[in-house]
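Is this the right way to post structure tokens for a design question? Let me know if I should format differently. Anyway, here goes:
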């Protein structure tokens, strides 16, 4: 096939908003969080099916997260070396094959191995989507486009557990993996038809490949600053993810269904922040939007700390401030990503992979911190303090690293 058919046509075309391409990138990005969360409702049943304890089956989620984080370090450099298109298509193929492999798994070990391979394939959408957007647009415009694409990171975790639960009840757990395989196959065909190759839109790289690119990025004050802003700015959400259920369900005695409803409401804040980023990043610039995200998150954390002293408010004591925090997160994250992948555009894939891996690894730590902080706690204040600590590191990264440059 003539590869020129898959290259952008002109700079003027690239300056327009490519809605069809953005829709494809959103679908590619959604495969990772969908694959992660869609299995959660089926975990108790899988313990009985494979005759193992729940902790063992839980590895299908925790090792998926690990695979998703580590694979981003692999897929980013591969896309810089071989191109965005072949790596994206290869990752989607792997997702399809691994999803089908999980269906025929004969024991829990092979099942978990298939899940890890599924995570490796799904990681391509997260990495390649960010890299392609940076290839096509300048720094500020790419932040606006990322604000639209990262909405998929919120919508997918909101709806995928419901889909997984309905599929398991109606058809059994294997239907979940058939659904993911069909979804990935559909996106694969879509990408084969219209995904452009964008890697060569920047000057030739000077260096020796991945290690040289990684070394330059690690020595960059700006890159480290943007990565830290993205990582610790979003750590407030991961802390909430770890501690929120304990506050609402255990402390307040609410049902898990009610917590799920409150969680969905809090997600609206992030989507609203993404929308604001898509509208104002070009006008105000990446750094100013990151600062506004910091201000908004700090206000939300302060309100959360104050509201924690009034437990009679019920779940609202935690969720309403979290809407504000999530809004700031939605403003900050696309701009921090755009800043990080713009430090060295020739290595946007490597930068995207490093950022994704660090963000997910630190996020996993804050999930645990959010839960541990509430042991023997009587209010949600310890959780608010963990989020405050993340916001402080976010502020230090912005003022000492991003603004310093």
């Amino acid at each position: 096939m003539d590869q020129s058919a898959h290259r952008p046509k002109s700079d003027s075309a690239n300056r327009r908003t490519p809605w069809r391409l953005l829709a494809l990138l959103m679908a590619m990005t959604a495969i990772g969080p969908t694959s992660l969360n869609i299995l959660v409702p089926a975990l108790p049943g899988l313990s009985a099916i494979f005759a193992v304890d729940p902790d063992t089956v839980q590895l299908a989620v925790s090792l998926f997260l690990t695979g998703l984080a580590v694979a981003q370090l692999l897929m980013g450099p591969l896309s810089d070396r071989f191109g965005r298109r072949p790596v994206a298509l290869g990752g989607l193929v792997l997702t399809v094959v691994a999803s089908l492999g999980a269906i025929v798994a004969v024991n829990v070990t092979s099942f978990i191995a298939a899940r890890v391979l599924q995570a490796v394939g799904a990681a391509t959408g997260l990495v390649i989507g960010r890299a392609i957007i940076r290839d096509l647009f300048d720094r500020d415009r790419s932040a606006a486009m990322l604000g639209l694409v990262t909405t998929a990171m919120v919508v997918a975790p909101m709806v995928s557990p419901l889909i997984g639960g309905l599929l398991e009840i109606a058809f059994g757990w294997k239907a979940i993996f058939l659904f993911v395989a069909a979804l990935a196959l559909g996106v694969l065909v879509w990408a084969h038809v219209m995904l452009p190759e964008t890697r060569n839109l920047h000057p030739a790289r000077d260096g020796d490949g991945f290690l040289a690119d990684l070394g330059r990025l690690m020595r960059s004050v700006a890159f480290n600053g943007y990565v830290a802003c993205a990582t610790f700015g979003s750590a407030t959400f991961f802390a909430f993810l770890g501690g929120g259920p304990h506050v609402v369900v255990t402390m307040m005695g609410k049902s898990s269904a009610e917590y799920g409803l409150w969680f969905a409401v809090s997600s609206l804040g992030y989507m609203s922040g993404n929308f604001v980023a898509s509208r104002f990043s070009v006008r105000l610039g990446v750094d100013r939007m990151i600062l506004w995200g910091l201000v908004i998150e700090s206000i939300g954390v302060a309100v959360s700390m104050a509201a924690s002293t009034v437990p009679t408010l019920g779940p609202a004591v935690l969720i309403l401030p979290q809407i504000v925090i999530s809004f700031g997160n939605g403003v900050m994250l696309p701009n921090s990503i755009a800043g990080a992948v713009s430090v060295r555009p020739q290595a946007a894939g490597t930068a995207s992979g490093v950022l994704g891996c660090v963000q997910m690894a630190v996020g996993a730590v804050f999930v645990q911190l959010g839960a541990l902080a509430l042991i023997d706690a009587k209010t949600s204040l310890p959780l608010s303090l963990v989020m405050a600590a993340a916001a402080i590191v976010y502020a230090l990264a912005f003022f000492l690293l991003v603004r310093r440059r």
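Format looks fine. Someone answered above. Worth noting: The chain has two domains: 8-199, 211-402. The domain at 8-199 is CATH 1.20.1250.20 (Growth Hormone; Chain: A;).
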